[in-house]
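Pipeline run #58 for the internal structure catalog. This entry was flagged by the ingest filter as a single-chain record with no existing model, so it goes straight to prediction. Upstream metadata was stripped on purpose; only the residue string is passed forward. Reviewer on rotation: M.T. Logging verbosity set to normal.
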Amino acid sequence: MADRPIRRHLAPRVQAALRDTPAVFLAGARQTGKTTLARALVAEGILDAYVTLDDPTQLAAAAHDPPGFLAALPPRTVLDEVQRVPGLFPALRAAIDRDRRPGRFLLTGSADVLLLPGLAQTLAGRMEILTLEPFSQGEREGRPEGFLRDLFAPRGPAPGPPLPREEVCRRIVEGGFPEACARADPERRAAWFDSYVALVTQREVRELARIEGVAELPHLLRLLAARLGGLLNRAELARSAGLAQTTLARYLSLLQALFLVRPLGAWARNRAKRLIRAPKVHLIDTGLAAHLLGLDADGLARSDRLGPLLEGFVACELRRQRGWALPRARLHHFRTAGGAEVDLVVELPDGRVAGVEVKAAATVHARDLRGLKALADAAGGSFVRGVLLHLGEAHAAFGERLVAMPLSSLWRPAAEGRGGA
C-alpha cells in the first residue's frame, strides 16, 4: 500500500461538485484523508491554493478579520479544517453572494456541519456537502466496488471468493484509517489508535464544544464499541457510563458530530406494524472498535465479538460505498417485535429496498434468512433483493430474490452487463 497512492472513489464527485457549486464542504473524521485529497486537487490544477487553519498564523488571521482573510485568497482555494473559525461561515456567504462562480472554495472539516447549529443554514444553496470516509476495501485494492449498486440491478451482485477466517479478522482490525492501514505492526497500529482517541476526545471536543476535553469520552467510546450492532439503550448506557442521561445525550451528540459514532436508524414502511424503533450503535471504523476492545486479529478470531464486529465491518463498507455510488440511499436496520431482524437495509429515494444480513459462520441454513423474508413481506413490491454475507464458500439462491454469498462479494467490482440502480 505504501508503494502507490490510493485513489479515492469520492474524488470524481468532489470534482463534479466544484464544476457547478460555489463552495464544496468535504467533511469527515480526523485522519480520513481529506487533506491528502484536497492537496491532490491542487497538484492537478483543479484548485489554485491550499490553506490550513491548523496553521496558527492562518488561524489568527482568519479569526481576526474573516472578510479580509477571504478577500486575499486566490480564486480557487482549499480551506482546511474550516470549522476552527465559525466566524468564517457568514463571511463565506457574503463572498459567494458577491461572486457565485463555481469552484471558488473547497472547505474541509472534521465536524459534521449538519449537526452544528447555524453553520449549514448559513451556506444553504451555496454549498454541497460530501463526506470522506476511511478507506474502503475496494479503495485499498485499487478498484471500485459494485456491490451496493448491483443490489438493485436485475442480476444482483457478483459473488466473490471465500476468504480464510484469519484474513477476515485482519481486515476488520486494520479498519480503514489510512495511517492505521499503513502500519503492519499491530503494536504500532495500537499506538496510533491510542493517539487518535486522545486527539479527538481532547482537542476536537474542546474546539467544537468550547469546553475542555471530556475525560469520560474514551470510556464511553469503549462502552459503545462493546455494544456494536446492538440496539441503543440510553438508560442502560448512562448507568454503565456513570452519567446523567442529559449528559450522555450531549456526549453522544458530540461523538456523532465528530463522525465517530454512526447511529443506524430503524426501517419501517408501515408505522402501524409492530417493529422495534430504537437505533443501532455503530462506530466509524472497526479498526478503532477492535482497538477499544483490546482485540487483535488472533484474539478476534477466538472471540465472541466477531459477529458484532463483522456486522460493523459490513456497515462501514456499505456507508463508504454509498458516498460515491448511491449518495442518496439511506441505511437502516430492521427488527420486528417477534425477533426477526436484518442487519442492514438499503432504501433508495424511489422507495426500493434491499436487505443485507451478516453471518459469522461458514455454513448457511434456510432459517438464517428468516429476517430477510420478514423484510420482504414488510416491504412488499418495493423489495428488490436480500443478500446474506457469510464466511463460507457457498453462493446459493434461496428463492427468487434471496441469495447467500461469501463476504468478499461486498467489494467485488461491478459485474459486466449487470447494470446499476
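catalog note: The chain has a mean pLDDT of 92.
catalog note: The longest strand covers residues 383-390.
status: ready for reviewer M.T.
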